[in-house]
Write a structure and sequence with these properties.
By secondary structure, the chain is mainly alpha-helical. The chain has helices at residues 4-7, 9-44, 54-77, 86-114, 120-146, 156-169. It is globular. It starts with a helix and ends with a helix. The relative contact order is 0.10.
Length: 170
């Protein structure tokens, strides 16, 4: 008995994309909690370590959230497309992540300073819009520039040197 998914490659591709997007958004949600939680912990938590240094707290929380999201996306969302070049992958991931953050800052700045919309509601709407745009840029950037290994070769890079040595000895 054949299922609809086996009869329709397009449906299978759509399903795979929906699963990938769901994983991407879940990892992003966890990273958001890490960012916000660590920021508040550093500023207002026990000892108030960075109470008077909000930018330092934000840089540290964003760095931690970026690492969490890279690991989550590398090993779960884009596991079939990760590369063997972890350093390159992390650097590009961070650059794209910074671009996403800058988009969020730009939407807030545009709304607040150019359009003169200075209410808390306007600031929050522009921030949400910036997060949405930044998320789209991140997803496309990660797919296009970071996690680029085709599925068939995904498991080869991590074990290729070991397999080559074993084959050479045989």
């Amino acid at each position: 008995m054949t299922t609809l998914a086996t009869r329709s490659p397009r449906l299978t591709a759509v399903r795979a994309r929906v699963v990938e997007l769901s994983r991407f958004l879940a990892v992003g949600g966890v990273s958001f909690v890490v960012d916000l939680g660590l920021f508040n912990l550093l500023r207002f938590g026990p000892g108030e370590l960075l109470l008077h240094k909000p930018l330092t707290a934000k840089v540290l929380s964003v760095a931690a959230a970026t690492l969490v999201s890279w690991v989550g996306n590398r090993h779960w969302t884009f596991a079939d497309h990760r590369t063997a070049q972890r350093g390159r992958e992390l650097l590009l991931y961070a650059v794209i992540n910074v671009l996403g953050v800058l988009i969020g800052i730009a939407t807030l700045a545009f709304s607040h300073y150019t359009l003169g919309l200075r209410t808390p509601l306007a600031d929050n709407i522009s921030t949400i819009f910036g997060i949405a745009l930044g998320t789209i840029v991140r997803y496309v950037g990660y797919k296009k520039y970071v996690f680029i290994t085709p599925h068939a070769a995904a498991s080869v890079p991590d074990t290729a040197p070991l397999n080559a040595e074993v084959d050479a000895l045989a």
